[in-house]
Amino acid sequence: MPRNWLTGNSRKNSPTLRRARTVQDRMADYSEAVALAEAGELMLAADVFRHTGTGRRRILVIGHGCSFSERLGQYAIGVAERMGSDLLLLSVGMPKQDPVWRRSFSQLAARAAEAWKEAAARHNLNVDHEVRFGTIDEAVSTLVRSCGRIEFILSEPEEGEQVLGQTGLALFTVK
In the predicted model, is pLDDT for residue 105 greater than 50? Predict the structure, then answer.
């Protein structure tokens, strides 16, 4: 007996055909979830979208060079705590080939991320830190493809402009 794939009338555990959600739909969901989380409506924020993947959700936070602003840090930790997400910090350095400069940049970025890790630990959040060299849009695109489970991106306006529309993820800038 043939299956009707379009209506889903088939045996138990058979595949069904579903329409993929658009990037605009996902961005609208993330915007709504962030707004609800900011308002303290944690259960409603969690109900806005459900995930079928494994692992904890992460919020990608793009630093300004090897540093992260205090305002961006406070906002990111607050949203991550309310949404039950971890943080993935990204420091992007210029594509210089000088190993001394790269090592110095990486050390400064690690020190800046360490302050965030301590603050996040007080809220029971996990924080990972990545250092990449190149353009911001290339670094973010590569990281998003390799990491998975990134919910959305937080950045300052300057970095946000360079990433806008590059990943298919919602982008929120903190001024």
Answer: yes
